[in-house]
Structure formats: C-alpha cells, structure tokens
Amino acid sequence: MKTKWNLPENDHELCGMLSRELGIVPFIAQILINRGMTDSISARRFLDPYLKDLYDPFTIKDMDK
Asked: Does the global pTM surpass 0.90?
C-alpha cells in the first residue's frame, strides 16, 4: 500500500517575509505557514512563548483529582 501525501502549495512570498522577519530559514517558515501561522506575531508567539500565553491546565476535566 502506497501512502499519498497531500502537501499545500508553497507561498514563496509569505515564506520569504516570515523568514526575514523572524530570522529563520525558509524551510521552518514554510512549516509554520502550513500550521496556520501566517504572520510574524503568531509565529513568534509559537516559537518563543510566554507563560501567560499558556492555557490554564485546570480547565481540563477532572484536573483537580
């Protein structure tokens, strides 16, 4: 059985912009774009998160147990 990979089209312009703004290689910029981070603010927040940006773990069901 062969696996068929469905990859999104590369957005070279957006990839270049993220790469320059974040100082990362285009390959990593494209991975971020593929995961829905299409602006430098959301990408930077993903790559360098702050503790205040994390979700409260006590919102998970039965966490108090």
From this structure: no
Burial class from Cβ neighbours inside 10 Å (0-12, 13-18, 19+) for residue 61 reads exposed
Q: How far is Cα 64 from Cα 46, in angstroms, rounded to an integer?
A: 28
Q: How far apart are CA 62 and CA 12, in angstroms?
A: 45
Task: Determine the length of the chain.
Answer: 65
> In whole angstroms, what is the distance from residue 48 CA to residue 12 CA?
24
Confidence check: pLDDT of 23 > 80: yes
Among 5, 7, 14, 53, residue whose Cα is nearest residue 33: 14
| DSSP conformation class of 36 | T
Instruction: Measure the CA–CA gap between 17 and 60, rounded to whole angstroms.
Output: 37
